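Bumping with the actual sequence this time:
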Amino acid sequence: MASQVVELAVVDVGKTTCNKIYSMINIFFKFHANTNSLREKMSELTVCKKNIEEDLESADKQGKVAAQPVKEWLTKVNNIEGQVNSVEKDTTARLKHLCGCFPNCCLRFKFSKSSMEEIQEVNQLIGSANFPTGLVVNTWLEPVQQIPGPSIMDQNAASKLLDRLMELVLNDHIRKIGIYGMGGVGKTALISNLNNMMGDRTFSVQPFDIIIWVTVSSITDLHGIQLQIADRLKFKEVLENQSKERWATVLLERLKKEKKFLLILDDVWEKVDLDKVGIPQDLMGCKIILTTRSLAVCNQMGTNENIKVDALNNKAGWKLFSEHVGELPDVEEIKSLAMAVARECKGLPLAIKVVGSSMRGKKRVELWRDALRRLRMLAPTIERVEKEVFLPLKWSYDSLQG
């Protein structure tokens, strides 16, 4: 019995050893077959990858991005492509070094076995290229993002400017619109109301696929402008993965996928080189609005039409001031002082709002006299500083309690 057990064990070991040896010999002699088969499978995988990337590119134009399983699949494909290319280069180099011969049995076996393993991995990737939940997820870009801020519809002059601006925006022959005027007169309020109207108003056909609002803090910070645009397009991660030297090119290609878009450049102090940013200017659907303090900047930017925003007249200024100061005491002297305070704000909406709000609820004549006195004292001290910036800041500071 013992001898039979030993005999069976020896036979099993022999079979296992023979099978392993046969498998190794088989792998060794199928070197060329395995490498050729791998190339064929890689070609099949490449076609599959190309089809998926084309579908993703088409979906990208509709504001959709690759689903996470698809991203992971593409990463695995890129990895196997790099792995196979590396092995092929190594194999080619060694064959060339040995004048086409391949006498090193260990290396021949190694490359043949590696090819078999990669064929298996490639087959798995090809088999998993069907995504039951879909290639993309919908990250549709809302055409308009509502901007918080007060309406100017009840301000007669501002409302007329808004109507004029809307008229220009809807004119297909106008590409660039400039809005200029001194600081604090409500240029940003004008375009924010336009933006919100685009979202609220029902058009038979929406004028733009997307409205992009950018605050231009400095023309030297082109990358900052580019990032704001990319963020609105949900394209920021893609842009940041590129070298900054290519940002303009990449952004240009992305913007060209939008058939119709409105770009708002708010608070432009000097000419912005749109080409360096990556903004297409030759597309029929591309329209640009810029706000600036200088008509010269509008001209330098090549605007087709310009709208000047002036300070409010005394009547409009008083109306806005009344809205922010609230109900005044039934005292004639306080009303007279309040009207004088409103006039000292020089028709600047920003100053009117700040001063009016700070005087809200003040019922003593002395406080109104002091407010008027302080406003009049400010003027000689700020000859070289823009009043529309200085006045509300100084007033806010002086109004702090404690």
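The tokens above came from a reply further down the thread. The first strand starts at residue 64 and ends at 66.
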